Amino acid sequence: MPRPAQEKKLIAYYNPESPISExxxxxxxxxxxxxxxxxxxxxxxxxxxxxxxxxxxxxxLAVTYAQEGxxxxxxxxxxxxxxxxxxxxxSNLSGLTSVLMNESPWQNAVKPTDVEGLSVLASGPTPPNxxxxxxxxxxxxxxxxxxxxxxxxxxxxxPALLMSDSLIIAAKCDGVLIVVSGGVTKRQxxxxxxxSLEHVNAKVLGVVLNNKQKxxxxxxxxxxxxx
Length: 227
Hints:
Elements: H1 3-9, H2 11-14, H3 19-34, E1 42-47, H4 54-67, E2 72-76, H5 84-88, H6 96-100, H7 106-109, E3 111-112, E4 118-121, H8 130-134, H9 137-149, E5 152-156, H10 165-170, E6 175-181, H11 187-199, E7 204-210, E8 223-226
Parallel strand pairs: 1-5, 1-6, 2-4, 2-5, 6-7
Antiparallel strand pairs: 3-4, 7-8
Helix pairs in contact: 3-4
């Protein structure tokens, strides 16, 4: 991927002094304060529909945690339409599906990034049964191994209203961030997603409002709303 495209997406890394980067750091702080007694170690970022900005949020949030000195792993759990490997310019020939299929140890599939302390696990080849793979005992074991190695694991999940994959992972994580797109995400879709997450006993930390109106962007880009 050409570097200019990466700079536009990973603004928290390439332009850390920007107002947008500051809002991602504020989001990080809010997450940290949302669960003081039991720190968040695993987190999934999802949305109701495609294009709401979940990958943007997951990637930049991961960068801000790494900038704080944390050991961070960001995982592309969207096994049907992966994108995270483009953001960090890594290969998708091997990834999460390769590990779950016992084709590669996760230590070999995880790749370093230009951000110190931040590693990425691409999705890997698209499997015929992504839901079953994510709901497997192997996935449970993998999450525990990640937690032993990293301070925080962030999953970029698929849109949760289109498939149950994100709900499966959400039930395994310490917290969930819902991303909605201003003026695009329908209220009933967001409410349906929230209800679905509650049904699997997932802990919703809050909602990130993405794509605010242009006249407001200098003030804020991503806004966090507590539960």
